[in-house]
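Example S7 (structure tokens).
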């Protein structure tokens, strides 16, 4: 086995490899740093099953048996010497510059190399971690090279602490570099490979943005991967006085000096149960790439990203689904595609009888043909999924004549809208739906209410007083006051009544206008259009959505969207579309420090049902984020351990426009990518509620209601120009708009074909149109051009 650096690339046996790695501490929840061979094998098998091919022994040489197992199973190892003086380094005390420590430095490096040099799995020596630079490291590196010059040397640290720049020795590395910093580092030195020794925070519910790193790594030949923050949550098993087990972290043992939850930073729990983050890692690290060539003809290009083997050990399997339901499937012969090569294949599906309002997906999966040391035959190694570009007829409409009439009854406090089987009540003073009965069965404890808060994840708290979570609390998002202002009722037809609730959301420093327009149909359907208009100063938001409380018997959740595990806007590559189901309690992810969990992205429709399969259906227009919980949001926010969670007397159902991304570049400053943030701007989104039994067929029919479009832009005030985008809640429905003109002026109407720029103060008015049903309500937004601030005069001495 030969390791070398040639033309700025790390080569193993003459081939440039990608390090799809993870940092691993030796840890067991019951025995601390004493790790059994069974636990080592468990770690390696889980890593291999999730496409991890490399381990950094952070931050010390591991037990000798670990290296033997890595040799046998096939994992690359960055072997790291036991040198770290993090706290001194941050204070500017650099032991590497103190000659009295020289022999200790050299001894630790030499001892590691003499013990481990005969292991082929070890391909890189690492001098240590976060101890600054100095002559002692140079002496250590020279001694290692003299004993074993067959492997490159890595060391990331620099002076002063946390400064940005090129490290010394053979490999460019950086702690938790952003993708832009990676580009900078690669430009600064074209002679060395760039491999991040630590990247992507794994604290709590995290690992957002991993796909962006690997999009860049696959593009740049000298960027050769990295080692994700940490493998395992390092929580020690402890028991409450009542004997309830939990995993403890810093401060739980009465110690005064500790790092709190900093040790709870893994992809797996202490017992090695897989966290949802690891499914994202598996997808991003997968060694087979599939690209669409011609989906209608079933043509796909399969690219083998293995370094040395062809694809003959994998069996390709395909499936075609309709709204997540399997309609066709098959298996292909293994592909003898050489490492680094690609091949166009054809999936032999039959063109289906396309049904209205159905989404068709094609998934190609690669599974082990034979059992291996690390996984059984049939284990899925890689997959890709494509939305099929079939012509899908528009959904049929529910017609007025099919619907029973609605009756309206009002008192000073309550508004009741009912038909033979449906009864909906609203409370004027509360400004909320307070009851929803279908066939005499009550579903609600409390109806939809605006919610802009989530139980902060670790990355939300990163940055202390400058964190996202601190800004949310300062704005009062965790204690938002909902103040109803007005309730209006209009009976549009005998079978449709609209009720509009206007309210004010009051925080500690600013206010936000909320409007909820309920359209209630004799068919039992309820469409809720939500509009949020912030005023004053608000931080970026953790979520924009509505929450409701259902009766506790609605314990079964089924949904069509991404799954089966949780997903978020910046961590959903590893969650394929499908129709999934399970108990509400099974959607809970038991992060050691309780936090936001269990979210589902891109949900087209879902149902919360009881044991008789009756419940509440939810449909997004076109999709929503959705989650259901046994615990209250307040409980999840304030609990510090899992044993502090208490089941609520209701099911919390969140139907959100979106949640903000989790972030993951690191956990210290707030660094969620702007693309996954929710700036405080106007939002509008809609969803459909339908109580009853199996309502899937009814959800595939359009209601005789034309919902207005959403007008989107990055801000309401701009200096030069602003990009404006219009979106229909129903795909394909035409949108018309005007610029600074009333809609009644037909010659001013513009049919929307794509985003456009405004360059002056502009009022955009827009509506959707459906032949036979007319126009939606007209909505408008004003975008104001402001003058640029004059540049400050140059200050004396300023460059």
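Recovered sequence:
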């Amino acid at each position: 086995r030969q390791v070398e650096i040639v033309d700025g690339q790390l080569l193993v046996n003459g081939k440039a490899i990608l390090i799809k790695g993870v940092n691993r501490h030796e840890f067991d929840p019951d025995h601390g740093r004493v790790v059994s061979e069974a636990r080592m094998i468990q770690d390696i098998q889980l890593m291999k099953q999730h496409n991890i091919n490399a381990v950094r022994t952070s931050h010390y040489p591991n037990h000798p048996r670990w290296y033997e197992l890595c040799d046998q199973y096939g994992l690359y190892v960055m072997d790291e010497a036991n040198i770290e003086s993090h706290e001194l380094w941050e204070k500017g005390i650099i032991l590497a510059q103190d000659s009295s420590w020289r022999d200790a430095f050299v001894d630790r490096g030499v001892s590691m190399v003499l013990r481990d040099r005969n292991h082929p799995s070890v391909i890189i020596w690492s001098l240590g971690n976060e101890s600054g630079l100095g002559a002692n490291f140079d002496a250590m590196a020279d001694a290692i090279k003299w004993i074993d010059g067959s492997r490159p040397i890595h060391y990331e640290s620099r002076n002063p602490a946390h400064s940005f720049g090129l490290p010394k020795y053979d490999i460019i590395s950086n702690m938790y570099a952003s993708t832009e910093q990676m580009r900078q580092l690669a430009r600064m030195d074209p002679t060395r490979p760039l491999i991040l020794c630590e990247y992507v925070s794994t604290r709590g519910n995290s690992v957002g943005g991993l796909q962006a790193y690997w999009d860049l790594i696959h593009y740049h030949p000298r960027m050769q991967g990295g080692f994700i923050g940490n493998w395992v949550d390092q929580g020690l098993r402890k028991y409450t006085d009542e004997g309830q087990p939990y995993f403890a972290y810093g401060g739980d043992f009465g110690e005064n000096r500790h790092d709190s939850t900093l040790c709870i930073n893994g992809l797996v729990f202490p017992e090695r149960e897989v966290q949802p983050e690891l499914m994202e890692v598996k997808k991003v690290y997968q060694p087979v790439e599939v690209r669409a060539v011609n989906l209608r003809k079933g043509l796909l290009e399969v690219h083998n990203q293995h370094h040395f083997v062809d694809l003959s050990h994998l069996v390709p399997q395909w499936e075609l689904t309709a709204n997540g339901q399997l309609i066709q499937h098959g298996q292909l012969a293994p592909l003898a595609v050489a490492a680094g090569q690609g091949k166009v294949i054809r999936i032999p599906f039959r063109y289906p009888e396309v049904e209205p309002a159905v989404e068709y997906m094609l998934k190609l999966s690669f599974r082990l043909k034979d059992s291996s040391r690390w996984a059984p035959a049939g284990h899925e190694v890689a997959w890709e999924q494509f939305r099929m570009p079939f012509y899908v007829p528009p959904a049929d409409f529910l017609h007025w004549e099919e619907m029973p009439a609605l009756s309206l009854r009002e008192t000073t406090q309550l508004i009741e809208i009912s038909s033979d089987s449906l009864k909906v009540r609203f409370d004027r003073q509360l400004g909320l739906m307070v009851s929803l009965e279908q066939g005499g069965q009550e579903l609600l404890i409390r109806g939809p209410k605006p919610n802009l808060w989530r139980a902060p994840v670790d990355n939300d708290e990163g940055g202390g007083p400058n964190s996202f979570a601190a800004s949310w609390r300062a704005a009062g998002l965790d204690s938002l006051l909902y103040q109803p202002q007005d309730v209006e009722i209009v009976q549009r037809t005998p079978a449709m009544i609209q009720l509009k609730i206007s309210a004010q959301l009051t925080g500690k420093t600013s206010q936000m206008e909320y409007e909820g327009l309920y359209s209630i149909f004799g068919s039992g359907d309820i469409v809720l259009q939500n509009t949020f208009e912030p005023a004053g100063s608000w931080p970026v938001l953790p979520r924009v959505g509505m929450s409701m409380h259902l009766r506790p018997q609605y314990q079964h959740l089924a949904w069509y969207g991404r799954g089966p595990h949780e997903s978020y806007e910046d961590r959903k590559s590893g969650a394929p579309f499908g129709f999934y189901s399970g108990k509400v309690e099974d959607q809970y992810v038991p992060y050691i420090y309780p936090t936001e969990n269990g979210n589902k992205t891109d949900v087209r429709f879902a149902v919360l049902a009881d044991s008789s399969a009756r419940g509440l259906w939810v449909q997004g227009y076109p999709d929503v984020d959705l989650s259901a919980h046994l615990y209250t949001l307040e409980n999840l926010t304030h609990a510090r351990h899992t044993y502090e969670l208490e089941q609520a007397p209701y099911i919390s159902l969140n139907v959100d426009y979106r949640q903000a991304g989790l972030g993951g570049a690191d956990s210290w400053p707030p660094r969620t990518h702007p693309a996954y943030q929710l700036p405080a701007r106007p939002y509008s989104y809609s969803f459909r509620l339908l109580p009853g039994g199996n309502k899937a067929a009814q959800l595939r029919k359009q209601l005789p209601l034309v919902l207005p479009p959403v007008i989107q832009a990055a801000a309401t005030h701009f200096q030069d120009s602003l990009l404006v985008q219009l979106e229909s809640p129903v795909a394909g429905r035409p949108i018309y708009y005007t610029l600074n003109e009333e809609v009644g002026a037909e010659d001013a109407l513009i049919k929307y074909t794509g985003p456009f720029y405004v360059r002056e103060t502009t009022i955009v008015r827009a509506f959707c149109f459906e032949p036979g049903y007319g126009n939606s309500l007209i909505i408008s937004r004003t975008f104001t051009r402001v003058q640029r601030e004059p540049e400050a005069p140059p200050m004396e001495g300023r460059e």
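Notes on this example. The chain has four domains: 3-234, 286-387, 402-705, 706-799.
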